[in-house]
Amino acid sequence: MKRLFLALLSASFCASSAFAIVGGPWDSNIPGNPTPVNPSDINGTYTATIKGKNLAGVIRFSSASIGTFSLTASGSTAIISEMNVTGSGTFFFEGTSGAASVDTVIDLGGRKIAGVINGASTSLLPVILVRPPTATTPLTEWTVLNNIYFNGAFSARFSNNWATNSFSGKGTVAASKFDFAGFNTDLAANPATADPNNHLVVVPVPIKIAGVKASDTIDTIHSPSFTISLPIVTQILP
User: Fold this and answer.
1) Residue 229 pLDDT greater than 80, yes or no
2) Is the pLDDT reported for residue 55 higher than 70?
3) Which residues contact 30 (CB under 8 A, 6 or more apart)?
């Protein structure tokens, strides 16, 4: 009986060892993965999704600067600034699509990530607002550019399991936009004086981030440089 027990124990040990050889932390637990990822190496490219109320986005960033971010302000005065950032992102936000710069700091020893987001989303078509005529005021129309400018920050933690490259966290972005619902409420209560210029707001939007280290190589191909034009959320044309 003792010999049988030792034989079964030896077989179990060999089977466990063989299973560990097939998949492990250096090949993302995928047998035969041709592009292994080393979770203990801070260098590389990280990808993640960002979610919030009426917001969905995908970001890509690296452990070092991968490109130059140019920020252009549209309007009568153009302001152009450049800075080196670690990544970029694309977003769909309240019916508008846009892009953002993403700058991050990765603390692999502390299992933490901190990031800053700066971007804008633009609607292709303007919105026409109408204030009907009253006994004392004429019919008035405004053209509103339904654009959104947003910036904010997030923090995330890596999984406690070093063999797992995943991370997750939370943050907040502040969205500068036009409040259509607020204008409609104002128009119903004040049909002679409602003005869309009084309904430009900044709204905090909580976000969640979840991602993974995708490669040990810094991604300089996908994001060598990118430009974001700030939307004109303050321009309301009569």
Assistant:
1) no
2) yes
3) 23
Helices and strands (H, E) in the chain, number of each type: 2, 14
Condensed to tens digits (0 to 9), the pLDDT of residues 188-208 reads 999 999 998 889 889 999 999
* Domain with 93 in it: 42-121+149-173+204-231
User: Which residue type sits at 166?
Assistant: S
Tokens 């004040």 label which residue?
Answer: 190
In a domain, 109, yes or no: yes
**Residue 11 within any structural domain of the chain:** no
Does residue 56 lie in a domain region? yes
Give the pLDDT of residue 15: 44
Q: Given a cut of 70, is residue 14 above it in pLDDT? A: no
106/40 Cα distance (integer angstroms): 12
Give per-residue pLDDT as tens, 124-163: 788 889 999 998 889 999 888 778 888 899 999 999 887 7
- Torsion angle of C-alpha atoms 68, 220, 40, 116, degrees rounded to 10: 30
The answer to the question of residue 48 being in a domain is yes
Tell me if 200 sits within 8 A of 234, measured CB to CB.
yes
Helix (H/G/I), strand (E/B), else coil: 29:
coil
Number of domains in the chain: 1
Are 133 and 169 contacting, i.e. CB atoms less than 8 angstroms apart? no
Question: Residue 163: which CATH number?
Answer: 2.40.128
